[in-house]
């Protein structure tokens, strides 16, 4: 068996292992619930808001309704949006690329979500804001 054949067999085994953890047999956009519904071969259904997935926020109902399931069931593709979701990652709660998820977490972390946090932020602003780090000179 040559190198390419060995590599191919390794890839096939890896794909089969991922398929065993769950693969999509169908997917649709439920307009009433405003959710993407993915049905796995195990009978489990996953529902997720499009705004949580990279590339789908702000999409029209027509765009969201056109979902293609890859032949192996490991990927979802929205051709009108040129957006893709990897099903095993979706099962693990990964909703986009690493950089996109970091940007989502960063923007969420800076928001005021409670009256106490908002009040503390305003009080800190009245004192001149966050103190400068060591070695930073003012100008």
How would you explain this protein's 3D organization?
- With 139 residues, the chain is of the alpha+beta class.
- Helices cover 37% and strands 19% of the residues.
- The strands form two sheets. It has a three-stranded antiparallel beta sheet.
- A hairpin with a 5-residue loop joins strand 4 (68-69) and strand 5 (75-78).
- Residues 104-139 are annotated as: Disordered.
- This is DUF2442 domain-containing protein.
- Residues 110-123 have a biased composition (Low complexity).
Describe the structure concisely.
It holds the Pfam family DUF2442. The chain has about 140 residues and is α+β, with helices and mostly antiparallel strands.
Please describe the structure with a list of short key phrases separated by commas or semicolons.
single chain; 139 residues; alpha+beta; NE0471 N-terminal domain-like; three-stranded antiparallel beta sheet; 6 strands; DUF2442 domain-containing protein; DUF2442
Task: Summarize the SSE layout with pairings.
Blueprint: H1 3-20, E1 24-30, E2 35-40, E3 45-48, H2 61-65, E4 68-69, E5 75-78, E6 83-86, H3 87-91, H4 98-109, H5 115-126
Antiparallel strand pairs: 1-2, 2-3, 4-5, 5-6
Mean pLDDT: 80
- Corresponding CATH architecture of the domain at 23-98: 2-Layer Sandwich
Give me the number of helical elements: 5
CATH level-four homologous superfamily name of the domain at 23-98: Uncharacterised protein PF10387, DUF2442
- Element-by-element helix/strand order: HEEEHEEEHHH
Strand order across the biggest sheet?
Answer: 1-2-3
Coarse shape: extended
What are the segments in which pLDDT stays under 50 over at least 5 consecutive residues? none
What is the radius of gyration computed over CA atoms, rounded to a whole number of angstroms?
Answer: 22 Å
Return the CATH topology of the domain at 23-98. NE0471 N-terminal domain-like
- Percent range for helical residues? 25-40%
Distance between the termini: 69 Å
> Largest sheet, if any?
3 strands, antiparallel
- CATH class membership of the domain at 23-98: Alpha Beta
């Amino acid at each position: 068996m040559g190198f390419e054949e060995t590599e191919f067999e390794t890839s096939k085994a890896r794909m089969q292992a991922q398929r065993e953890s769950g693969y999509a047999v169908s997917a649709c956009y439920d307009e009433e619930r405003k959710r993407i519904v993915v049905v796995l071969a195990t009978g489990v259904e996953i529902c997720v808001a499009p705004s949580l997935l990279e590339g789908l926020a702000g999409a029209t109902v027509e765009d969201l309704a056109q979902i293609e399931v890859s032949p192996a069931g490991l990927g979802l593709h929205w051709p009108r949006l040129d957006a893709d979701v990897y099903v095993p990652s979706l099962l693990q709660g990964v909703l986009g690329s690493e950089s996109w998820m970091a940007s989502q977490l960063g923007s969420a972390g800076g928001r005021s979500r409670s009256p106490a946090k908002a009040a503390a932020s305003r009080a800190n602003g009245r004192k001149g804001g966050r103190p400068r780090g060591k070695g930073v000179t003012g100008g």
